[in-house]
Design a protein that fits this description.
Elements lengths: L1 E5 L2 E13 L10 E12 L2 E5 L12 H10 L10 E3 L5 H4 L3 E4 L3 E4 L4 E4 L3 H6 L5 H11 L3 E4 L9 E5 L8 E5 L3 E5 L6 H4 L11 H18 L3 E3 L6 E4 L3 E4 L2
Parallel strand pairs: 4-5, 5-8, 8-9, 12-13
Antiparallel strand pairs: 1-2, 2-3, 3-4, 6-7, 10-11, 11-12, 14-15
């Protein structure tokens, strides 16, 4: 789905599947199905993909084929993508950064993978089976992982900002000051009015709630257009607070 251009980039919202959650997970009384998405940005002589679906990590989503089909719909293959930005290490965001059969026969899908640098050691030091630790190891082995500091341009006009609590290293992605990809800072539109409902998947629920409240207030004041990974439409948070999708 084509989105409005920002900061000299053409933006396309990519469909990488969907996830269904029973009542009590994201909403207290209702089940909900949310999209899994990526954001493709083309401009300034470069192609950037923000998040890349589940890849081989979750075969139930058929993630490898979903990613390739979504890119093919834009006339691209993974080789045409210059930079992949992983907002965090959850499987529905980062699994597509590797190709093959998880966990024993995988290789890097893309030639440059950027993450926020603040939690990379946390992932390296984990010993339980998880995507993040294995993913960091594979991407470093293949020489494609590039941790960057918050505020440093990873492509012209594109920077990361820490949005802590949901996952270590969780980041939002700014396009200048015109537009922000808020990743999993909010999961569904109902969380704008009820951010306290969004805690089940947080590593640190108290910090994540503080982050959500701060972002809701900030975006309501600024009117900055925003896209969240599991909300179908780009929109704005308006005073109330409430969600206002793009017309």
């Amino acid at each position: 789905m084509r989105l409005p251009d920002v900061a000299g980039y053409r933006l396309d919202h990519l469909d990488l599947g969907s996830l269904t959650f029973e009542a009590g997970v994201l909403l207290p009384e209702d089940a909900v199905t949310v999209p899994v998405s990526g954001l493709l940005a083309r401009g300034h002589g470069t192609t950037v993909l923000i998040d890349c679906g589940s890849g081989p990590y979750d075969p139930d989503l058929e993630g490898q084929q979903l990613l390739r089909d979504a890119l093919a719909g834009e006339g691209l293959t993974p080789d045409d993508v210059d930079t992949v930005v992983l907002t965090h290490m959850d499987g529905d965001h980062a699994g597509g950064a590797v190709t093959g059969t998880w966990p024993d026969d995988v290789r890097a899908t893309f030639r440059r993978v950027v993450i926020l640098d603040e939690a990379i050691d946390w992932w390296r030091q984990r010993t339980d089976p998880n995507l993040g630790t294995g993913l960091v190891a594979v991407l470093e082995r293949d020489g494609v992982l590039e941790p960057v500091a918050a505020g440093v341009e990873l492509a012209p006009g594109i920077t990361l900002e820490s949005a802590p609590g949901h996952r270590p290293g969780h980041a939002a992605v700014w396009f200048g000051d015109e537009f922000v990809h808020g990743a999993d800072t909010l999961h569904v539109v109902e969380h704008v009015a009820h951010p306290e409902w969004d805690y089940v998947f947080d590593t640190d629920a108290a910090v994540a709630l503080a982050t959500r409240l701060q972002w809701i207030d900030r975006l309501a004041q600024s009117g900055t257009p925003v896209l969240f990974s599991h909300i179908a439409d780009r929109g704005r948070i308006v005073p109330g607070p409430a969600w206002q999708p793009d017309a």
